[in-house]
Amino acid sequence: MTDSPPYARIVAELRRRIAEGELAPGDRLPSTRQIAIRWGVALATATKALNTLKNEGLIVAEPRVGTVVAAAPATPRPRPPVEPGDELTRDKIVRAAVEIADAEGLVAVSMRGVAAKLGVSAMSPYRHVDGKDELVLLMVDATYGTLAPPDPKITSWRARAEAGSRGLWALYRRHPWLAQYTTLTRPVMLPNLAVHAEWMITALSAPGRTPTQVMNLHVLLFSYVQGLAVNLEREASARAATGLTEEEWLETQAEQYRFYVESGRFPAFSGLMRSFDSDGYDLDLDLIFELGLAALLDGIR
């Protein structure tokens, strides 16, 4: 065993812990960086060890969770009986799909997965929804429908625009997958999204602005909020795929950062990075959102 490559020794140890029940199905494995530190190996070696176990079917990457021990094959659990008044409906299908997307991302949503979550046959949802494309549209519209309208007592255009933008940001915070769907160049008309658009267009329709200016400002503010929000889902997906937190991933880039800081080719970047040596820099997306929103609104006349 001592002649085995380092990654193989890691695989053997983790395989043993899984086989003996020390790591049970659903338990989270150490991250790539934690394995590298514990076994004194490079990150590439730790990654190879985890990939080997994934290929063996012993572990899986769970979105928003990380790498966990795979569930052992089991006999299917009987579905709970349908209670009176608990018939399958389109609303129940949409709610279940939204719950899956909130927990695992939009990519995890499937008609079969929704059926499993609801404890019905795989084909049952098709009695109410034509397929995944229609389901996603219904999910998006239903989620935008939870966006509470701002206080109607707000009268100034800026305060109304701020309230609408903050409400949209909070919605994306609750449902990170939502920002991945809506596009500017190919907009889809949805009733509940139209409610938000109506509020923002009314807010931006100040005296003296042309229709084109109002539409441009509406698109600008919507795209700003959406563009920042897409990073919420991307970070969650990256963390699940790599098993690394944002901080752990940055540590893997430390050598590259040091190269650019010390190269002398980028003095402004180097000076800025060195100013964070003592206290560091914490990326706060909520703070960035408020900073950007204020800058945008300050520039609107």
TrEMBL record:
Pfam families: GntR (PF00392), TetR_C_1 (PF02909), TetR_N (PF00440). Residues 110-129 bind DNA. CDD domains: WHTH_GntR (cd07377). Residues 4-72 form the HTH gntR-type domain. The keyword Transcription regulation applies. The keyword DNA damage does not apply. It comes from the Bacteria. Keywords: DNA-binding, Transcription, Transcription regulation. SMART domains: HTH_GNTR. Residues 87-147 form the HTH tetR-type domain. Transmembrane segments: none annotated. PANTHER family: GNTR-FAMILY TRANSCRIPTIONAL REGULATOR, MANNOSYL-D-GLYCERATE TRANSPORT/METABOLISM SYSTEM REPRESSOR MNGR-RELATED. This is GntR family transcriptional regulator. It comes from Allokutzneria multivorans.
